[in-house]
Amino acid sequence: MTPRSILAVTDLSVRADLALSRAALLAVEHDTTLKLLYATPAGVSPRADAACRLAHQALQLGQRHGLCVRPLSQTMNTLEDVASEARCADLVVMGAMPECSLRSLLCGQPVERLLRMARRPILVTRQKAEAPYRRLLVAVDFSDASRKLVEFAFALNQSAQVELFHALSTANEGKLRCAEVSEHAIKAYRHACRRYAQDRMFWLTDSSDARRNRVYSAIGHGDPARQTVVQQQHGGAELIVIGKRPASAVSDFVFGSVARRVLRHATADVLVVPHDVQPASRAAAVRRLDSEPRANRRVRAGAACSSAVNAR
């Protein structure tokens, strides 16, 4: 579960700098290599100096944090290209990169489409990265994937305070009221659901790894996405960790998903881990790294670049 390779995606905007800073901190924490990939929103032409600016940022991050940063020189990257690189990484870090188009309305924002294509954990940053995450909120649904989700959160930062959160949906209660079931029976049903949730919370935390961490649990009542955002704001967690069930773009558009709504409404960083997450393509990653010589010449801040630095 520990990330051994990190890919940071940037469009060279100020907002994307948040993603680069967080990716660098995570790379230092886990002593791993960081790769930078330039990608522009759909319909936007790439910058002429993109390769040079990316190499400059790689040198800056490497010198500031004392780590190996490898810029990828290709600048005409589509979302499919990003997905191809993402399959070689254990963790992808990127900014929110909102897109206003009919495609984003029907198929989801770029990060949502990337989740379906690459099936890799994606960290979407919104806050300034000044220190490692100290508080994590893990939204669980008690499926078998929830235990892996908790383990991933623990591996991200062993010393962080972790809060497991589950929201009891009121949808079934509404159906019972429509069927004119008595209020007493509805309260008994609600009590049974809460007791089941408490038992499952114990199931998630009853492990040696969990006991070594500061682990708390909380149970809410209402819409899972909204309650997750409210709980994060109340507890001050810096990162929300949430799972994403396999679903097509049509299914997400018609029925929605908790992860999709959390991504849209959260103000904190959000890490989305697909339930059908695939292991990184290690052999491909090694071949790519071997074929990409490290940038070894300095680029002074503010200096004009007559040609792009070829990092491949």
What would the keywords be for this entry?
single chain; 312 residues; alpha/beta; 10-stranded mixed beta sheet; 13 helices; globular; disordered C terminus
Secondary structure layout plus pairing:
Blueprint: E1 5-10, H1 14-30, E2 33-38, H2 50-65, E3 69-71, H3 79-86, E4 91-95, H4 102-107, H5 110-118, E5 122-125, E6 135-139, H6 144-156, E7 161-168, H7 171-178, H8 183-205, H9 208-211, E8 214-221, H10 224-235, E9 239-244, H11 249-255, H12 258-265, E10 269-274, H13 282-290
Parallel strand pairs: 1-2, 1-4, 2-3, 4-5, 6-7, 6-9, 7-8, 9-10
Antiparallel strand pairs: 5-10
Descriptive overview:
By secondary structure, the protein is α/β, with parallel strands linked by helices. Helix content is 45%, strand content 18%. It is built from 13 helices and ten strands. Helix 1 links the parallel strand 1 and strand 2. Helix 3 crosses helix 5 and helix 10 crosses helix 12. The C terminus is likely disordered.
- Give the end-to-end Cα distance, rounded to a whole number of Å: 29 Å
- Which of globular, elongated, flat, extended, rod-shaped describes the shape? globular
Give the H and E element order: EHEHEHEHHEEHEHHHEHEHHEH
Average per-residue pLDDT, rounded, comes to 81
Largest sheet: 10 strands, mixed
Structural class: alpha/beta
Radius of gyration, whole Å:
21 Å
Strand content: 15-25%
Instruction: Provide the spatial order of strands within the biggest beta sheet.
Output: 3-2-1-4-5-10-9-6-7-8
Q: In a few lines, what is going on in this structure?
A:
The protein is α/β, with parallel strands linked by helices and 312 residues long. The chain contains 13 helices and ten strands.
